[in-house]
Structures are given as structure tokens and as C-alpha cells.
Amino acid sequence: MDMPEITYGFKKTVALSVEAADLRIRDELKKEGFGILTEIDVKATLREKLDVDFRPYKILGACNPSLAHQALSSERDIGLLLPCNVIVYEGEEEGTSVVGVLDPRVQLGITGRSDIDHLADDVRARLERVLAAL
Q1: What is the spatial distance between Cα 57 and Cα 99, in angstroms, rounded to a whole number?
Q2: 74 CB burial (10 A radius; 0-12, 13-18, 19+)
Q3: C-alpha span between 55 and 53 (Å, rounded)
Q4: Is 123 exposed, middle or buried (0-12, 13-18, 19+ CB in 10 A)?
Q5: Is residue 63 part of a domain?
Q6: Residue 69's CB: how many other CB atoms inside 10 A?
Q7: How many domains does the chain have?
Q8: 42 contact partners, CB below 8 Å, separation of at least 6
């Protein structure tokens, strides 16, 4: 389906349930060397903390250890910008989900360090392939 870009990331709407999209994105991330370090179930958290109903929505913290090591070796405090956030949420149309990723160029660009642009470009290319494979 579509892959409209937003100013700080890019996303794709897929004809999958949230559960199926979540499994697929994890599988595709793994193919590109990423693992999931963190997971936030926003729907469950909002239900528990605020007693409100919200659409199924997950935030996944994806990390490619090799690339993270390179980034951390270049700048120790860059851990403030890691991991790469991936979102999966219920789409507007029944039976669809939206999968989005934070643009690593934007994410690492705030450092002002052009010497790590190659890392942001590498991560972005991998994440674009992940979305394209969905």
C-alpha cells in the first residue's frame, strides 16, 4: 500500500491486523539485523493508567547491535537517541494497520555531527527495506 513520509519518519499502511503487522515487522527487522529491546503496549497502558480506551498501538524499540556499537563508539551520549522507534497501530480502515519508523537522519541529525551521517543513512536504508517488505 502507500508509504507517505512524515517530517520525522516514514510509514506504511498494510492490509493486516495489528497482531499480524506486529509479527511481520519483527520478522523483517530481524532480517536486517535488528532486535526488539523494548515494547510499549500503549492501549494497555492507557487502559491501566487512565481507564481510557484507545486503538491497538505498540511502540517497539528496535536495535541493530553492530550499528549501535558504531554510534556509541563515535559519541558515548548518543544512547539518548537510541533505540530506533517503530510504531504499529490500528489503521482507519477495518483490517488495516499502520507501521511507521522514526527517520534516523532526523534522529541522529540533531547531534550536528556529519561524521555519523553514514550510520543514519545505513539505518534508514535498512528500515526502508523493512517497510517495503511488508
Answers
A1: 10
A2: middle
A3: 7
A4: buried
A5: yes
A6: 10
A7: 1
A8: 54, 57, 58, 59, 89
pLDDT (tens digit per residue) in 44-92: 999 999 999 999 999 999 999 999 999 999 999 999 999 999 999 999 9
- Which tens digit of pLDDT belongs to each residue from 105-131? 999 999 999 999 999 999 999 999 999
Torsion (CA) 29, 31, 132, 57 in degrees, nearest 10? -20
For residue 134, which amino acid is it?
L
Q: What is the CATH number of the domain that holds 63?
A: 3.30.310.70
Could you tell me the three cell numbers for 130? 523493512
Confirm whether 105 is domain-assigned: no
How far apart are the C-alpha atoms of 67 and 72, rounded to whole Å?
Answer: 9
Instruction: Give domain status of residue 103, yes or no.
Output: no
Report the residue count for the chain: 134
CA distance 61 to 26: 11
Domain encompassing residue 41: 5-96+123-133
H or E element: which one contains 118?
A: helix 117-133
